Amino acid sequence: MIRIAKNGCSSDVTFIKKNVYFDWDRGLPKTYLGKKLNKTDLLKENLINETHLPTVENLMIDWELYENGWHVVYGKDGYKNKHLFYYLQQMGNWGSYKPEELEYFK
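Structure (tokenized):
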């Protein structure tokens, strides 16, 4: 099951014009996201320079792209890199720490 992420103002969290979802014990079935897409291709289209791709992919290591949104996967040991997800949600004081990798996007 998944749930849409909300920021500190209770607005839906989006990234590159797609809603962001995370694992939740109740909510929408993961099938709601539709077909899995190639995250790397979308990132390349939206980066200023493809040389930044490895750094951005590390920032988004927990993120999977689907036709109806992003799914941030919580693994058995937690998130591998929670910075972007927590920043976009304004979780705790994470909202004050913009990931520098966001400067690499158009």
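Strands lie at 2-4, 14-15, 18-23, 63-66, 69-72. Helices lie at 39-46, 53-59, 83-89.
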